[in-house]
Amino acid sequence: MTQETAAQADEQFKYYHPGEYARENIRITPTTLADGRQFFYLDDDPAYVSGAKTRELTDPRPLVDRFAPHLDADGNEVPYAAPQMRRDPLTGDWIPMATARMNRPITAGPGATAKGNPLAARKPGDPYQDGEVPDTDYDVVVFENRFPSMVRVPGVPDTVSYVDGNHLWEQKPASGRCEVICFDPNENGLPADLPVRRLRTVVEAWAFRTAEDSAIEGIEQVFPFENHGQEIGVSLAHPHGQVYCYPFIAPKLETELQHTEAYMDVNGTNLLKDIMQAELAAGERVVMRNHSWVAYVPAAARWPLEVHVQPVRDVLTLDELNDQERWDLAVMYSQLLKRGNMFFDKGDGKGMDLPYIAAWHQAPVRDPRRVNYRLNLQFFSFRRAANKIKYLAGSESGMAAWVSDTTPELIAQRFHELGPVDISGIGD
């Protein structure tokens, strides 16, 4: 397989349309892993962007087709264990169930089961040779998860059946898609330490996958997110994020769609935009802003550290962002991660590696209520002090009734101590 010119690469994606910066400074090279999964290099190194250097496209692992039958412990051939999902009749929520995830490698925390890092670049001569990246180096890569919570299996009809034959319990294949985005080849690095230029490539990856994944049959919501830190439950210690493509609308977004639609019906305006404007007017909880983005602690924050980020312009999804907005987002995300790491003082003034979740809420793919929505990032941590964690106990877990250990104003006050609100002049 040969690599195309940048112009040819633009033409190979039907739904993703790069802006001027990406056309000139980011090269996307697709390939296929040994078991049939899609893989993409996103290069920002000028040598690869120009085509002077090329990436390794052949996965040398002797993997069988991802959907092929396999032998069980007794030597019997069993079919691929396709993820299923069942609907909770009390809430209407779909619950994906993927038993194959029990076999995924874990390299972080006390429950580690693997010594090698499958997200690292290939290391010639290394005894661990089950890495997902064919090349010995990379900038940013995206690939289908080897142990997905949701996947469309060829030949499996997307039809509803019933558990135990009882119509109370609907079930159907979890025909979604799960992807991994590796932010950098340095497996010991932190996202907060990445240069803005690399985070700009990560932003492009979010936009690229949002555009392409939204066109997949049956996908209702595209959800890019990042889990960071052992306390969050991260199983692979490497700077990376994920993209979940749900064949349904997730409960959190469904609730937000109900409220944004009701608000539009009554007020004739966009709820998310009005929230942002109200936070700007109040001022106290705004922690950062630049030409394109506003970051604020929401007035009803649940988490002991929580920041929401919205674009100034009305935007529904990440792929709708223009070049300036993508650059300004990379700058703001960098500052948010750095200040998050400084939020809790251990007494030495050095801060800590903050465990966090960064969750992109964007308009659903097909639901007509998408017109009432607005792109926003919800960034939060359940650490409530340098040595304390906010546990979701009886009230939160049992009734989803939140009890906060702080106030939004105190969260914002701490962020104000860590840097200026206006970050328009901050670059790489």
Automatic annotation (TrEMBL):
EC number: 2.7.7.12
Keyword hit for Cell division: no
Top EC class, one word: transferase
InterPro entries per record: GalP_UDPtransf1, GalP_Utransf_C, GalP_Utransf_N, HIT-like_sf
Any one Gene Ontology cellular component term annotated for this protein: cytoplasm
Active site as annotated: 240
Stretch list, region Disordered: 107-132
Residue stretches making up the Galactose-1-phosphate uridyl transferase N-terminal domain: 82-248
Cofactor(s) of this protein: Zn(2+)
Pfam families the UniProt entry points to: GalP_UDP_tr_C, GalP_UDP_transf
GO annotation terms (biological process): galactose catabolic process via UDP-galactose, Leloir pathway
MF term (GO), any: UDP-glucose:hexose-1-phosphate uridylyltransferase activity
Alphabetically ordered keywords of this record: Carbohydrate metabolism, Galactose metabolism, Metal-binding, Nucleotidyltransferase, Transferase, Zinc
Domain Galactose-1-phosphate uridyl transferase C-terminal: 257-367
PANTHER family (alphabetical): GALACTOSE-1-PHOSPHATE URIDYLYLTRANSFERASE
NCBIfam families: galT_1
Family named by the database record: Belongs to the galactose-1-phosphate uridylyltransferase type 1 family.
Name of the protein: Galactose-1-phosphate uridylyltransferase
Organism: Bifidobacterium choloepi
Gene name of this polypeptide: galT
